[in-house]
Amino acid sequence: MKYCDKCKIKIDTKKTYCPLCQQTLSGEISDDLIEKYPEYISINRKVYPVTKRIIMFVTIVSMIILLVINFATYNGRLWSLIPIGSIFYFWILVSVGIFSKANIAFRLATLTSLLIALLVLIDEASLSEGWSYNYLMPILLTVCNLAISVIILIKRIDYRDYILYLLTIVIFSIIPIVLVFFKVITIIWPSLVAFGLAISILLFIIFFFPKSIKDEIKKRFHA
Amino acid sequence: MNKESKHDTWFRLDNSGKIFPEVSSHRETNVFRVAISLTEKIDKDLLQLSVNTILSRYPMFKVKLKKGLFWSYFDYNSKPFIVEELKHYVCGEINPKKNNGYLFRVMYRNADIIIEMFHSLADGAGVIMLLKALTYEYLLLTGKDVKPDNLISTKNQRPSIEEYEDANSKFYNRKNKKHVPEKRAYRIKGSPLSEDLTGLISGTMSTKEMIDLSRNNDMTITEYFAALMMHIIYVTQIQYRGHISSNQKPVKIFVPVNLRKHFPSNTLRNFSNFVKTDLVMNQDDISFEYLKSLVKEQFKKGMTKSELIRKMSENVAFEKNVFLRFTPYFLKKYALKIGYNMLGVKLNTMSLTNIGKVDFPESMEPYVKDVTAAVYSGRYNTLNCSIISYKDRLKITFTRSIVETTIEREFFRHFTNLAIDVEVESNYVEEY
Ligand SMILES: [Zn+2]
Question: Do the domain assignments include residue A131?
Fold first, then answer.
């Protein structure tokens, strides 16, 4: 035990000074003493790496330049949205798709939905031919539906975490059919395939996992 | 419990727990610690095994925090929980991403087992129950002949719903929920420590001597400490500087009250409330004697049943508000943040938590040397204090986010000047 004459306290430490008043402690301590608390090792807080900041800066500046040129030479088409949207999507793809540790079904659902939004944007900003609605939207939804279903079948244990995202994509898959009614979509068969698959998956969940879907909804929506 | 139902487990956050996820950051971590010193070096693998046992006994801790449409909730966590070696951080942020989603940590160093808990999940009394159960399982695994003596819930008992009920809403009274507006409190000044540092100094004294000392003053230990703390803050920070504008703010010591002692409940979740000392100290001649009688009076007022129910109902009413309830979560968190800024840490100068006496079964006592409790300190409460006692060891632990140790020094010198022995421990933050 060491001792501080000023504070009149006892302390078990190999350190020289009193933690209360910074005076030199008197007394001896055995050599095999292990300090009660570990030593402080400074850990510098992570700052954004310089390269990341440079890339961010360059992309934002180029987006502004693109917008300026587009408006300066405006001919009725917002073509600058195509590269800007693609750059945004690229960033999300990198951060959500590669670096995020989030739920894989969530990542798939997010990336697919945003990809569809991007493709629609490109379609509209270019020649408005409708290829994005007619083909890519229903096909991507179908692929995403199948992918999440396969993941759920493989990762049986965690399926509760994924089922809500599957349900979201299933509901999104109804959108193309609605667009058919509004005559936005003219090529019907891809939308029908997407719809058919979505309904089958929905029925499968309702027939085979009625409790888990009910529980999941109860959890997520309790007020 | 079969495997199927285990995975379906989920819990609502309790009333006080709902606020913490929104207002916590690496500076205001809302994490607190309890630690136990045993007689032998901790075996990491056995500790891991006992934690696994405990987690299946207490499903309410085997959870991760997830967001719903209206509220966040605790969902069953299928990932493994890993015990770690103690690092220098004291009550540092619990980042679920780095912790397999878990909202608490179990650490070890030498002969110590340390639990750090995010306040959403439980309060001090709840974690003490967890610590006792963990120590029991650990001692059992190391081959000690220990018995639970009804003081500890072992793996042989089934988890009960009572353990994770939200007792706050149970005693909620719609007719007694008036909101009493409060002024911002005085903030203890000092030079800030680096962000990943929390200074810790604890002093151990004789429980008996402390009880005698406070009895001679006709007070409880908590009241005596709160009055002494007011006095020391006054002497070291405010006296003869009453004209300075920041010294016009009231000094308020926030003292949590364990409601399990006032209302019947055995929940492990948050079930505590508070009393506060409250005084503007801009006069030059406030005596310790005056502060003692003031604290006694303010505590008496704050601890009446109807006042405790009012404070509880005030919080529950906020949550039960129809508009807030059906606001989507991503908007609601801003409402909660604003509400917390009106009710939260800025209204307190420091917090003084008395966990109280920890009892172990007689068969465990030879293996338990000491217990420690500590709470985080942040930007607003730059100095906090926790008290816990075990047999004749009463331990006061100060945690600080400032360099200065003046208040701790004067606090402990008060006792050594009364010829009471104080044994100090510190995490020695020397290089700033
Ligand atoms: Zn000293």
Answer: yes
Give A187-221 pLDDT, tens digit per residue: 888 888 888 888 888 888 888 877 777 777 888 88
How many structural domains comprise chain A? 2
- Model confidence, pTM: 0.85
Please list every residue in chain B whose beta carbon sits closer than 8 Å to the beta carbon of residue A12: 423, 425
Amino acid at B289: E
Tell me which CATH code domain B10-168 carries. 3.30.559.10
The residue segments making up the domain with residue A139 are: 92-221
User: Which residues hold their Cβ within 5 A of ligand 1, which is an ion?
Assistant: A 4, 6-7, 18, 20-21, 23
Q: Looking at the partner chain, which of B70, B87, B408 has a beta carbon nearest the beta carbon of A221?
A: B70
> Per-block average pLDDT, block size 10, for chain A (223 residues)?
93 91 90 87 66 85 91 83 88 82 82 89 82 85 87 75 80 85 83 88 82 79 77
- Considering only CB atoms, which chain B residues are within 8 Å of A21? 405, 409
